[in-house]
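Usage

Read records sequentially. Each one opens with the input sequence:
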Amino acid sequence: YCLLATALGQMNNVIHLGPYQYVHVLDQSKYTERVEVGPKTLVLAGNESIVGGVKQFIVVRPRHYVCILNPVIKEVSDYRNFKLRFGHHEYRFHGEPFPLYPGEELGSSPQPLQSAQPEQAIRLRAADDVVFHGTPRKAGEEFLL
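and closes with the structure output:
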């Protein structure tokens, strides 16, 4: 019985990640969290645990977008070293599927993009200071697209 319990305990420390799957791994000795992406077989150390289980990458179809809350800063070198922009939000469009980093939240499910008919416009309001199509815009400024 003890041998079986030990074998079952070791099986819980082996995680099989398929393509486009990821997990958040908490290192309890350093109290840091990292992202591990598949496909791979991950063997957890004794001080590591999985937070939230195995998840699927976020897939945004063509002509759709998704809102990410507390997004990572884009100068991320790998899935272990990253910084979050707390209180900000970011819109991501069709492209490669992506995982959510620890602390990032899915603000909305993928939504279809709005389109304007000829002789119509879409009114936008800048949430932050941005440069949009080469023109600097201040936070709160409204402009037509």
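Summary fields computed downstream for this record:
- DSSP finds one helix and 13 strands in the chain.
- Helices lie at 2-11.
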